[in-house]
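Example with several molecule types.
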Amino acid sequence: MTDHKQFRAIRGTRDILPPDSSLWNWFERTARGVFESFNFREIRTPIFELTDLFARAVGADTDIVGKEMFTFEDRGAGILDVTKFSLNLDSLAQLEEAMKRGELANSERNRTVVSELRMNTIELSEVTEKITSAIREGKIELIQQYLPQSNRLSEQCNTLRQLIQFGDVLSLRPEATASVVRAHIEHGMHNLPGNQKLYYVGPMFRRERPQKGRYRQFYQIGAEVLGPSDAPGIDAEVIEMLLVLFNRVGLTRTTLYVNSIGCKECRPKYVELLREELRKVKDRLGADSQRRIETNPLRVLDSKLPEEQEIIATLPRISDHLCDACREHFAKLKDELNLRGIAYQENWRLVRGLDYYTRTTFEVTSEGLGSQNAVCGGGRYDGLVELLGGPPTKGIGFAIGTDRAILSIQEGGHLPKLPGLDVFVAWMGAKCYTTAVGIARKLRDAGLAVELPAEEMKFKKSLGLADKLGARSALIIGEDEVASGTFTLKRLADSEQKKLTESELLIHLESERKGETLGRYA
Ligand code: HAM
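Resulting structure tokens for the full complex:
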């Protein structure tokens, strides 16, 4: 029997359908235009990477890496294919060699499993030998004595064998900064002249609890600057670029928050002080914050729990504990923002949820989004390139959550007028079809959006469909038109009709599109 199961998009993922997809394309196109005007260029990186990359860059103890990544084990290749692997001392030696050559994940887990397997296999072969000689000598009681041991060992070997990671452990990217830094190192981009100014557009994946503005597959448009300098002017320009975009797309009910979270000189001392203060109030904090006192006390400052707010307000603030260099960097950043006329609010609690940040952190929130109101987050990450094995390099960037930005634009109600369908070709009669196909090609070549029905329709039905599709005009081609070599163009908004020759038609439609106001979105 056929299974009539209805497939649906996986929880936390969604389809973006027309006309929303036009709005998305417009937003992404506008971002590309703005970013390229600041001399940023696009980088495209894979959507999955070694899990270790994210663990190292974003931090193994962060929520993103600890709880939210979509992780899977790749299948091994060639001799290490799990399906072809049989267990004996030779194959274990092969595994160890493969681990050394990097063909098999040289992970803690694999090393432990292989060494336990080796011990078990040796023991198993000894027991098997004893059983074989007992059989030879017909000593039934000895066979009975060794058999359970042999069974237990084979079972253990089988269990251990399942634990071998034959392939790499990979994760869908939860963010793209780690990938951009990996690519920068891999391609020796530090040898290129000037700062590398890169942007990316694409999906990210986090296993979060879905709600409005929070998805498991969501989209980011991000930008990163990697290079030798950490001048605060770079930080300010990156923020300026972001706000130019927001302004251009009408995302104006926003607030920019900035902070400095210090560097590896001053932050550890502050974190220790914070930890001591937090220990004193531990009993009054929730379970998450209590745990974070030991694992990552900075994240306590991120807490949204109402009952913790009063306590957090009394905690020491990082701005009072920055080293001279960080204090100066932050002061210059604020000067640079003022120079550009950028309004901001300082927020000493803005610590961000990724471990790679140093000094500048920033976030933009937008009204009307409820609890998931951060439309963009970013900051400086000097030291990340070195942490991932590259040469000393400074870095700063941000990522905009496209889903939230679009939601906010939609809620704000200031939707752009996007060009819609320019012409619906209403033809009737087999003789007219050739003319219809020819003119549709010419109009499309001229950059107009044209709908040409493939099957004949009565004019009334054609015009009705043209209206439903939101076409600006209908081009009527009947036997009269073909005979006279003209076209009848009907403007659907007011039913005004014009008889035009082919060249007049092209000029007319192009000029209408240039002064386009009637294209429909929604
Ligand atoms: P992030 O703050 O984790 O930073 O994410 C940036 C933005 O992505 C957020 O402000 C939010 O708008 C959006 N976002 C995050 N998670 C979700 C979700 N589950 N659903 C919908 N939108 C979401 C980063 O990702 C850093 N890599 C930013 C960066 C680049 N820092 C330096 N360079």
